[in-house]
Amino acid sequence: MTPTIRGAAWTFGANVTTDDILPGKYLERCNDEVGQFAMAGIDPTFAARVRPGDIVVAGANFGMGSGRESAPLALKLAGVAAIVAPSYSRIFYRNAINLGLPAVMVDRIDGVLERDEIVISLDERAVINVRTGARFALQNLTGIAREILDAGGIVAFTRARLGQVAVVPETSP
Amino acid sequence: MTLTEKVIARASGVAVVCPGDEVWATADRMIMNDSSGPRRIGPLVAELGGVRDRDKVVIVSDHFIPAANLRHAEILKTTRTWAKSNGIASFFEYEGVLHNLVLEGFLVKPGMLLVGADSHTVTAGAVGAVAVAVGSTELATVVASGQVWLRVPETIRIDLVGKLPALVDMRDVTMQLLGDLGLQHATYRAIEYGGPFTEKLTIEERLVLSNQGIEMGAKNAVVVPSQTVREAMRAVKIDAREAFLLPDADARYLARHTVQVDKLGPLVAAHPSPDNVTAASAVSGIAIDMAWLGSCVGGRLADLRAAASMLRGRKVRVPTLVTPNTADVYRACLADGTLQTLANAGAIVNAPGCGACAGVHMGVAGPSDVVMATATRNFRGRMGSADAQVFLGSAYTVAASAIAGRIIDPRDIGIGGSA
Ligand code: SF4
């Protein structure tokens, strides 16, 4: 995981569901097809407008509901580099980390406008809004979840754990 | 230790675990469906060295049966082919919903650690197992390595006492809890249900409690097993002694709640959230376009019988779809006349499976449709159109509303007459 992520913010409210992120009608789609439908339940134009490296800034309990991994995968394939939220639904959070998509937890974040430039600094343990200068403390990711994210996802992590040599570093599932 | 702590300790081979500990545990079961399963997991499992223990793997095609289009048919084919070529004996299709089949066939037993790629994996907690949901990629690593990492969760204890009033059922109990505690109350935490009311519950009743735990965000939700679970296992000649774990008397809980179930009335979770709970009488009169009886939590034998008791000798006023959650439930309803009663009332019976629950097929809601359903959740867009509104209730409340053509408290019309 890169220690600093810099990108434009896309803001969403609290309790965004995985049905919002990837509606059920797209469950029939293959993993590599889902990027174009990211956030289709909430904003059908999102996937076409989001730029690689952008950051989703959301309210509490992001990704609740269905455990479909295609939800965080869709965000990742659409180009989202990281998510910032005060809390996540447990399965979504685990899925994001497993896919190597940093889901960063902050105690609070406010005053972020659409497309504000956001810097996530893991070294400084802060999320910074470049426009306002506001800093928000991010919760330290520790333990096995941190090791998985550092490995680039759970497939690469498991390969190392099983003593297998990675031929190509795992970047996407 | 709480029941969840005990199961995790056993599965990770240590004497004691405490909330916050991170452990590597050996999974006793790994479950997946046609959406989350082989199509996504297969290539990763192969990459990681293949299936480690095929006897622990359960695969059920439930989301896309019967295929509504070519993509669905391809997914079913991929699932079937992978299950066969990997020698998975516990593979089922056209048999019903994964979570119900796991319980019906005792593929999960008390004290087991089960990991599944579907949020309602928690349902298996009905028999006192710890059942935790993960995503497809992670399940692939568990299938290949046999192990899963867990952070031991704090446990919330919920005691249920009393006796349910007429026309009030298990779903009203979980709606009351969701209304009181909210969607995030149990996030990252375990729920442990116990108390005198739970002791007499059948497994089919228990599963409503465990299933709806995920709607409170729970990592897992266990119902403390009792004599009824032992007897149900003995009845099908399964050894009930094995790992029949119970919580310690001095277990430490993060919080405790008690629900007096005698005080409950019929409830409705109004659009767009399962915790948006109100008395059925408070939303009475809202016109509906469709009624749906189905899902892992609402298409049980008890649900279809409850609906039939309301519909006997009556007619539905709106399209009413019934999706038994397993083929066994379907056959039982056929044998005891339940299906006849439902069909006479004008309801349509679908193939057992997930059906309309995930907005995939077999009764998807259209724009501005108002649906009254026993589905698991009613988030925006969940059952189809993002402009549809879904209200959740017990089978009594859904059937009564189908008869009235509007949301109604089932006590307002009472049970039906002769067929
Ligand atoms: S019935 Fe609904 S909630 Fe249950 S497993 Fe199927 S889609 Fe999921």
Question: What does this 3D model show about the protein?
Answer:
The complex is a heterodimer of chains A (173) and B (419). With 173 residues, chain A is α/β, with parallel strands linked by helices. Chain A is 25% helix and 17% strand. In chain A, strand 5 (117-121) and strand 6 (126-129) form a beta hairpin. With 419 residues, chain B is an alpha/beta fold. Helices cover 30% and strands 19% of the residues of chain B. Chains A and B meet through helix 4 and helix 6 of A and helix 2, helix 3 and helix 5 of B. The complex binds iron/sulfur cluster. Iron/sulfur cluster (SF4) binds at residues 62, 97, 99, 118, 120, 295-296, 354, 357-358, 376 of chain B.
Brief descriptors of the model:
heterodimer, A: about 170 residues, alpha/beta, Aconitase, domain 4, 7-stranded mixed β-sheet, 6 helices, about 25% helix, about 15% strand, B: about 425 residues, Aconitase, domain 3, about 30% helix
Number of strands of chain A: 7
General shape of chain A: globular
Biggest sheet architecture of chain B: 7 strands, mixed
Structural class, from secondary structure content of chain B?
A: alpha/beta
Mean pLDDT of chain A: 93
- How many domains of chain A? The number is 1
Distance between the termini of chain A: 16 Å
Percent in helix of chain A: 10-25%
Task: Indicate the topology.
The complex is a heterodimer of chains A (173) and B (419).
Chain A: E1 4-11, H1 18-21, H2 46-49, E2 55-57, H3 70-78, E3 82-85, H4 90-98, E4 103-105, E5 117-121, E6 126-129, E7 135-137, H5 143-151, H6 154-161
Parallel strand pairs in A: 1-2, 2-3, 3-4
Antiparallel strand pairs in A: 1-5, 5-6, 6-7
Chain B: H1 3-12, E1 22-26, E2 29-33, H2 38-47, E3 57-61, H3 70-85, E4 90-93, H4 98-104, E5 113-117, E6 130-133, H5 136-145, E7 147-151, E8 155-161, H6 170-181, E9 190-194, H7 196-199, H8 203-213, E10 220-223, H9 227-235, E11 255-260, E12 267-269, E13 277-279, E14 290-293, H10 301-311, E15 320-322, H11 327-335, H12 338-344, E16 348-349, E17 370-373, E18 389-393, H13 395-404
Helix pairs in contact in B: 2-5, 6-8, 10-12, 10-13
The complex binds iron/sulfur cluster.
